[in-house]
Amino acid sequence: MPALLAMSGAVSAEPDAKTRQEILHLISHLSASGCRFNRNGTWYDAARAVSHLNRKYEYLSKRDLIPNTEAFIERAASESSVSGKPYLVKCGNAPEVQSAAWFREALQKFRSI
Q1: Cβ distance 75 to 66 under 8 Å?
Q2: Contact call for residues 27 and 53 (beta carbons, < 8 A)
Q3: Cα 101 to chain center, whole Å?
């Protein structure tokens, strides 16, 4: 039985290190942005949005549903899993944009560094 327990510890639903780093960057970027986040018709500050996205990340991660950062954006940061409505991001006086586009742009910039 001890061998089975040791083997079970080797299996992890966590995304790989590169994916975790990119997701952490995206969430940190939103946190520091000062932007507002619209979920199901209600605007929230970045801190509240980050908390929500962290909960979705944990849920999906435990189920091995985040093979890469794009999957995180698609499954956690693009739309409400309850209503199907897209999330929106509004930064300052700029027009609101769908969060999927906002996160993809932030990911592209991060990868180009």
Answers
A1: yes
A2: yes
A3: 13
CB atoms within 10 A of CB 13: 11
Q: What is the reported pLDDT for 31?
A: 97
**What is the structure's pLDDT at 19?**
97
SS3 69: helix
As a whole number of angstroms, the distance between CA 88 and CA 74 comes to 13
Residue range 91-113, pLDDT digits in tens: 999 999 999 999 999 999 999 99
Tell me the HSE value of 79 on the side-chain side, using a 13 A CA sphere.
7
**Predicted pLDDT at 12:** 52
Cβ–Cβ under 8 Å, residues 30 and 53: yes
Query: 3 near 57, Cβ under 8 Å?
Result: no
Q: How many CA atoms lie within 13 A of 64 on its CB side?
A: 3
